[in-house]
Amino acid sequence: MTESDPSLFERMIAGEIPADFVHSDERTIAIRDISPQAPVHVLVVPRERYRNAAELAAADPELLAELFRVAARIAESEGVAESGYRLLFNTNADAGQTIFHVHLHLLGGRELGPLA
Fold first, then answer.
1. The whole model's pTM is what?
2. Which of these is catalytic: 23, 41, 101, 103?
3. Catalytic site residue 23?
4. pLDDT tens, 8-58?
5. How far apart (Å, rounded) are the C-alpha atoms in residues 63 and 2?
6. Hey, what domains does the chain have and what are their CATH numbers?
7. Which residues of 38-58 are buried (b: 16+ CB within 10 A; e: fewer)?
8. What stretch of residues is annotated with the motif Histidine triad motif (predicted)?
9. pLDDT tens column, 49-87
10. What is the C-alpha separation between 11 and 15, in angstroms, rounded?
11. Residue 82: enclosing H or E segment and its boundaries?
């Protein structure tokens, strides 16, 4: 797959690939991760494709902020807002980014421990 091909998320948005949607609006979607790393693992994704968090921040800071607002609402609805949750971007290959369409990971539902 090249960067000019539709991303996995764009294919999910188009209905070409099934996904477990927990949120959808005109600018964002949120889906359950297919390989969850915590009891709650949701990906919050802008419909418009940006390669990574840095590119999104430079191009549309309001959309970046919207990802965080959506994540907070999902954390509340998933019952992890009070106990705690982690929000995480993987930016580029060395950080573990495998889909080059920016997405915010929301993880919670258990004690997550340190990052490193």
1. 0.93
2. 103
3. no
4. 999 999 999 999 999 999 999 999 999 999 999 999 999 999 999 999 999
5. 24
6. 8-108 (3.30.428.10)
7. bebbbbbbbeebbbbbeebee
8. 101-105
9. 999 999 999 999 999 999 999 999 999 999 999 999 999
10. 6
11. none
